């Protein structure tokens, strides 16, 4: 059917495509497929009982407030809770530094809206989070990419990239999506030093920071940036905008995340958010506050870590056992993903079709590379499937790969 | 505090301002102020009990699904329910025509994102809904405005505006925000005929359509557009994109609305929404479906109409009694707002400061005029305050105006 809308799309829609990940979610809905594709948390760890209790309390005690319009900045007690929560990780922000967003994806979109002019270069790790590329492509971003290895972004290659004059650096330092790797402490220092020298600010995206199964917690980039500045009073300095979310430590289906930024940036984000969705659902914010307060967040994150650690262990063990030689993978200390690299001549997009025939799925690596490359890579999620399914799924995947590589 | 972000804002932020309405919401939070300013539904009519029951059912029966990521298009049973609901008003759409959004504000933002290039002209009524201007300013929209009177947009002035080549027409035909007026049937016919002749499509924004207190329901613009086309089979034709929301018939704090559009437009909107917030909260969608199904929407809308009718009647009666001569106002047959016009030399922005001293608030009319004008106008909300407060608030407002006009 032809409509007068057909000729009216804005220029920017040419750079908007559907995400490979989202399209693949359709396969995960078929129950016979074992999917390592989605970035889904385990439904087993959702605090359903706590949500049910909180919903009752909220609707009984302040139902009218919870169902009414709210302020764009977000529910004040929730912002205060996030400020307290952050301070335990060395980020000393106050509520005026905090904006509640409808998931971290909205934070990325709003940041793109207020900062990116068509043609601006954004410095990213390669591979990097697909959702950021999707959000920023719509604003005409170009990308300067710095490669990464088992210790995260290779900061020795950072200076050259900084000389191209990027608008900001975007980095996921902990259990990165898609690779699962963590930026080493030495490289974190190098990152903040170089960013400071070139006057380029940083967006630190940290959805998985609390999901560390082993090893020591590393100080966040925003914390280290504060350390190198003159005034060592530990308050939030503003060179780094920090993002985190309730999606991985409570539940993604409530779409709740937050930005920590200088008050002036928060004001601009608030203006952008007013135009984008007025505010994030009041009900969800009050319920999340009720669920999360009183130490539940930390306690529940520990439980999730136990569950995910077991799944990661199973995945790594089975891979060790069944994968053909020539396949290599990362060994994440936390998070939801690992990253596999096949021999150079292989294309995981082709392999995916074969894998789906064998009832197993993953995400081909190319989509995470803003400037091409990564054809022989894939992202594997270990949080969603149960240990038995991980085992069976990995056997299926290995049989596909063995067929091809032999 | 200076940060490196200060010099990095995108060009488009120059056209993004904070909404006067949103700033005013801060006053409504002071309990001693009687506010006619916000666009808030009456908290008294929120179906709190129904929400509490639905939350329990949803978390018990499908808690893991409700707290998990969902598809960008929206929860399928909710889209089906909306399709059935719409068909009762003559809009015969199927789920593939429907996208769930995080409030109508997000629908406006996404439509701006996929259609508006910098400098595009959008044809609007003047005054028009502030949220649309806020959303579209960020994409560099310009506005061609057509004045309105007690029968809505003056369609006799439409043809001249259509000759400027607008990208689309934006109209709120029922109990318009801010004026409360309804586009007459004759003008609806004229609108769709002229839009068809000039090949300019229409966005019909209908948040209040079900809140009619008196008079006959008028066919929607999308319905009338279908009628003038060759194929009279009553299926959705696509020249008109139709927006509506649960904010006024259930509750705004859950941020749930929908777009009805041709499948191709829905696909583009889905791509834009993936980048904007991935999807609307799964939990809210399933809960709204549980609350709304089985005829509750229509039944509850009737109840809201009773409550709002009483409040409108009180407001009109008191105004008749206490307003000084020289003040005129609209007589809405439904919705949440009426619109007052003062003598030409007065400025309601100045008067607002005096009003707030007397503990009453409204929204000055200028903000609703994209191309200036309306200094002597104001928007008055009658849905939020209880009858006694409306009476008292109107007496306060009249005393301010009498002081000035005498």
Features of this protein?
homodimer; 406 residues; alpha/beta; Aspartate Aminotransferase, domain 1; Aspartate Aminotransferase, domain 2; 4-stranded antiparallel β-sheet; 41% helix; 14% strand
**Adjacency order of strands in the biggest sheet of chain A:** 2-9-8-7-6-3-4-5
Order of helices and strands of chain A: HEHHEHEHEEHEHEHEEHHHEEHEEEH
Helix content of chain A: 40-55%
Mean of pLDDT of chain A = 94
* Structural class label of chain A: alpha/beta
CATH architecture of the largest domain in chain A: 3-Layer(aba) Sandwich
Name the poorly predicted regions of chain A. none
Radius of gyration of chain A: 21 Å
| Total domain units of chain A | 2
CATH topology (fold) name of the largest domain in chain A: Aspartate Aminotransferase, domain 2
* Termini gap of chain A: 49 Å
Q: CATH H-level name of the largest domain in chain A... which superfamily?
A: Type I PLP-dependent aspartate aminotransferase-like (Major domain)
Q: Which strand-content bin applies to the residues of chain A? A: 5-15%
Highest CATH level, the class of the largest domain in chain A: Alpha Beta
* Largest sheet properties of chain A: 8 strands, mixed
Q: What is the total tally of β strands of chain A?
A: 14
